[in-house]
Amino acid sequence: MRTARILIAGAGALGSLYGAFLRRAGHDVTLLGRRPHLEAIRERGLRFDGVFGEGVASDFALADSPGGVDGPFDLIVLAVKAYDIESAARPLVTQLARDGALLALQNGLGHLEVLSELFGGARVLAAPVLIGATIPEPGRVSVTVYAKPVKIGSPSPAGLPLARSSAVRLAAAGIPSEPTDRLLASLWEKMLYNVALNALGAVLRVRYGALGERAETREIMDALIDEGFAVARAEDADLLWSDAAACRRHFYESLLPPTAAHRSSMLQDIERRRPTEIAALNGYVVRRAAALGIAAPRNLVVTGLVRATEARAEAPPR
After folding, report:
1. Dist CA 244 CA 222 (whole Å)
2. 207: which strand partners?
3. pLDDT, tens digit, 9 for 90 and up, residues 116-126
4. DSSP structure class, residue 12
C-alpha cells in the first residue's frame, strides 16, 4: 500500500497510538494536539509501550492548532472527545483530500450525523475501539488493554471501499483492524460496553474488573445494559444479539475480561478536571429513552452522579 498523508486530529492517548504505529509503518503523519506533548515528541520522538510492544516513532509534522496543519490528507483520524467533535472537525473539512477519508474514533452515538453533514457520508468512517491507552508522561503512550480488532465501517454504503482500504492500512501498521458492513451494530456493542462500565467505574473509582467481581455492581450493570438495549431495540437499530440476555453474556464473557485492568476514561477526565463524555453515553440513553417513552432509571442515576462528580472536581477547593 502506498505511503499516505495522515493527520491525527487529537493526539491524546488513542490518537498518539495511531500516530506512532502509522508513522512507524512509513506514512507521512501530522500530529495535532497539546503543546507539552508535542514538544516532548519533537525532542525525543513518540515512545510507545504496553500490549502492542515497545518502540519510538519520530519525524512527525507537529501542530497545536488547525491553522498549523498542511493538507490535503488522505486520512484524517479524528480522536477528540465526543463533545469536541464539531468544533474540531469543522476546520478540517478543507484539509481532507477529495478521495480521502475521515475516521472517527469517538465513544457514544450521534456524531456520525454531524460528520456526514460536514464531509459527506461516503467519506466518513467510524470505528468503535476496544483498546485502552494512557499518556503517563508527555511524549509517551502506553497501551494498557486490548479486547478485539477494531471494526471500521461507514454510515454510507458508498463508503465501504474506503473502510476496507483503511482497515488494510491500519492492520499493516500493527493496529488490529477489520472492515465491517454492520457499523451501527459494532457502535452499539461499544456503546453498551461503555454504558455498563465507564460511568460506574468513574463514580466508584475502580478498574473495570472490580465492577464484575461483586453481585451488587453486576446487578447495576445488568440494568444499565438492559435499558440501553431497550432503547436500541425501540429505534430498530441493527444489533449483534437477539435479546438483552445474549448481549449481557457477550459483555461478561468476551469484553469485560480482557479489559478488566482498564481505568474508566471518565475517571481519568475527572482526575484531570476535564469534562466527561457522559452526555454521549449514559446521557444519550436517558435522552432517547425519554423521547421514546421508555424508563431508564439506572442510567438517569449514574448520569446525575457523574455530572455531580464533574462539578465537584471543577469547583475550587474550600
Report:
1. 9
2. 263
3. 999 999 999 99
4. S
91 vs 187: CA distance, rounded Å: 25
Instruction: Give the tens place of pLDDT for each residue, 213-225.
Output: 999 999 999 999 9
Q: CA-to-CA distance for 176 and 108, rounded, in angstroms?
A: 21
pTM confidence score: 0.92
* Interval 275-287: pLDDT, tens: 999 999 999 999 9
- For residue 108, which of 203, 199, 24, 23 has the smallest C-alpha distance? 199
Q: Is the pLDDT of residue 31 over 50?
A: yes
Q: Which residues are catalytic?
A: 190
Give the separation between CA 56 and CA 133, rounded to whole angstroms.
16
What is the full DSSP assignment across 206-231? -BHHHHTTSHHHHHHHHHHHHHHHHH
User: Residue 141: which residues within 8 A CB-CB, separation 6 or more?
Assistant: 13, 16, 17, 20, 46, 47, 48, 49, 133, 134, 135
The radius of gyration computed from the CA coordinates of the chain, to the nearest angstrom, equals 19
- Residue-level pLDDT at 311: 87
